[in-house]
Amino acid sequence: MWIGIELFVRTIVGGLFIAAGFAKLSATTRWRQDWLASYELVPGVLIGPIAWAVPIVEAIVGICLVLGAFGRVSVLAAAAILVAVTVAVISALMRRLQVSCGCFGTLGELISWRIVVRNLVLIASLAGLARHGLTATITMFGASTQTLAVTALFAVVALLSWRQHHPRSARDTERVPVAAIRPDAPRAETPPQ
Fold first, then answer.
1. Mean pLDDT of all residues in the chain?
2. 93, 20, 89, 87: which is closest to 58 by C-alpha?
3. Rounded CA separation 4/20 (Å)
4. Which of 67, 120, 133, 171 is most buried per CB count within 10 Å?
5. Between the CA of residue 59 and those of 128, 155, 163, what are the distances in Å?
6. pTM, full prediction
């Protein structure tokens, strides 16, 4: 029974981290920096680097959690991120700031106590995993193999995310299938070469 609970928690929390990371990566750099600055917790000189690091770390930790890579380390990393986010949200709520949670990039809602409760439930679930340990993982392989698996999965998901937001080329989006051209429509003359 424990393996079912473990896989459920890892899939849900890891999936949320992956979705959150790639949603933030698909947002503009300016949005990420403005979102981070809106919490008024990070010194200005660090906003740029942290705005780049947060989504990448979220996605990698999520992938590690889903795969069970690095065992308890991935669970503790996910819990640490959630604790930091929850502290930032509580701080902003106490200061009555109206800011986006940024949970899923530009789709994030305004912060609320509901987000704090949700995060506390997720943290408690991760604490249970850390306490009982992970069973269905790729930790049977060495650290280098685990790193390679996480990196490969991150690259695939990043490529798919990038392709979704960037068409291959302007010419590809302007092509009209031959069947869509009416036979009686005037055709453009091709200049001789």
1. 82
2. 20
3. 24
4. 67
5. 22, 11, 17
6. 0.74
